[in-house]
Amino acid sequence: MYRPKSTVEQWRIFQAVVDCGGYAQAAEKLNKSQSSLNHAVAKLQQGLGLSLLEVRGRKAYLTREGEVFLRRSRKLTQDVESLERLADVLASGWEPVLRIVVEASLPRGPLYQALADFSRQSRGCSVHLVETQPAGCQTVIAKQAADLVFASRAYPGVTSLPLATTVYVPVCAPSHPLTRLREVGQPDLERELELMLADGSEQDEGWARAEQRWTINHLHDALSLLRRGVGFAWLPQEVVGPLVNNGVLQRLPMANQALRKRFTHLILPASAPPGPAASLLLSLTRHYYGQQEGTAGPS
Asked: What's the whole-model pTM score?
């Protein structure tokens, strides 16, 4: 079995001597005797079989080997400090991991902003962010396999908070035949290929659908096909707005200015109240979605 030749405390003392420029200064900073520091570093060098420091006058200088070990030892002591801080965090009830599931068809700009803020306050908590389809959301909720779920509909028996309204608008490539019409009615759409996000909307809210449909699982795939002139799609205004402004896509001039809307719901699958990390992310999420709701509107 491997036996360590050094201790974390020896490496901390070695670093202090280097940072302070000598044993006397390091002893004062660490509130230890100078002889104890000399002994610790001597024992460290003896165990390694290498000279890490050279004393000239009252100052300690790194050897070439010492420069290498100083860099590596700093990571070691930082990792130990992180482990000890993590133990304190977990002892306080802070969750080590948050699992977040997002329905693929939903825009998530405010969630990203909330996560950016959370990262600066996470205290070592890891985040697992997973994208799935409505059926996947339903399974995760039934198994209570996530802390937060973002879905386009509420589910019975679990806490559900309506966060924001997502507005969907019809778009296609500028080269698509539909863009030649001054006004587009439902009969015009019914004759064209529709790229339909797999968000369950074909059974929801009575949305009329084209007879020719491709079901697309991911928003990225729908956008890639639209750019190539394939079909039209009803997509979140938040996502396609910049592409329309840049001329990459074109919004169809609907005869009745039809807009389709859907809520983004935040669902807490677990029966127990959220822990402190989940509560923080929940608060940040509601804040940023609230900002979006206050400023959003049809363009």
From this structure: 0.61
